[in-house]
Amino acid sequence: MSTRIDISDPSDPRVDDFRDLTRADRRPDRPGGRGLVIAEGIVVARRLVASAYPLRALLGVPRRYDEFRGELADKRAPFYVATTEVMAEIVGFRFNRGVLALADRVAFPPADRLLVAGHRIAVLENVSDHENIGALFRNAAALGIDGVLLSGSCADPLYRRSVRVSMGNVFSVPFASIPPLDQGGCDLLHENGYRIVALTPRADGIPLADVSAALSGGIAIVLGSEGFGLSEESLAVADVLARIPMAHGVDSLNVATAGAIAFAALSGH
């Protein structure tokens, strides 16, 4: 059972993991980084508590502790209780969501194991914005995508802002790294029975609705970076180039929006 511990002194060393959140969620290989998974707000914190990530501790105002008590019966992580003012001093800014949860990262299975278990996969190439990553994971969870593969210089899905934008859905969608498509990623997908559908605004792309009607089996939906889209190398090895028809001369969509449309069209649900 999680233990309630009241905190009145912001400098109490027992809440050091919550201190200066702008640094606490950096990767372990970055200056000041501790590699923690940080969930903000009751919805996201609940999803972290229910996930496979090893829970370290929670910090919240008294009413949040009362709301959480029933969900922590089988958890040993302490729940630190403080006023809003004390919480703000601990985390380094005014915090209005009432509760934070911290967990350790876990080792993820290799991409091939994720591919065996899935049917519809998203492949992200050089998607570097944390909010876009979070939105893509939220869309993937909502629209029947079985997992996400990260290629190139993608942002960290477990960064605090990604977690927040995903509404904690990053905890339920499995993800792994994959080599660039032209450097082994394409072979890995094909070996596991996936057809590669690359999203592009190019005029020679097949309208997405026609792609949906023509394909069966495993589908890997590939989305590129915010600024440049997919690399020419990835487009060259894709099985299908697909586009989302757009009106009024608009040439592209935000990557998370394009992902949501493609996921809905190709999820098979």
Q: Can you give a write-up of this model?
A:
By secondary structure, the protein is of the alpha/beta class. It is built from 11 helices and 12 strands. The chain has helices at 21-24, 42-49, 62-68, 84-91, 111-117, 130-142, 160-165, 185-191, 208-214, 232-237, 255-266; strands at residues 4-6, 36-40, 55-60, 79-81, 99-104, 120-125, 147-151, 175-177, 194-199, 206-207, 218-223, 240-243. A 7-stranded parallel β-sheet has the order 8-7-6-11-9-12-10, sandwiched between helices. Strands 1-4-3-5-2 form a 5-stranded mixed β-sheet. Strand 3, helix 3 (62-68) and strand 4 form a beta-alpha-beta unit. Helix 6 (130-142) runs parallel beside helix 11. The chain is elongated and about 65 Å long. The two termini are 39 Å apart. 43% of the residues are buried. The mean pLDDT is 89.
Topology, pairings included?
Layout: E1 4-6, H1 21-24, E2 36-40, H2 42-49, E3 55-60, H3 62-68, E4 79-81, H4 84-91, E5 99-104, H5 111-117, E6 120-125, H6 130-142, E7 147-151, H7 160-165, E8 175-177, H8 185-191, E9 194-199, E10 206-207, H9 208-214, E11 218-223, H10 232-237, E12 240-243, H11 255-266
Parallel strand pairs: 1-4, 3-4, 6-7, 6-11, 7-8, 9-11, 9-12, 10-12
Antiparallel strand pairs: 2-5, 3-5
Brief overview:
The chain is α/β, with parallel strands linked by helices and 269 residues long. It has eleven helices and twelve strands.
Please name the defining characteristics of this protein.
269 residues; alpha/beta; seven-stranded parallel beta sheet; five-stranded mixed beta sheet
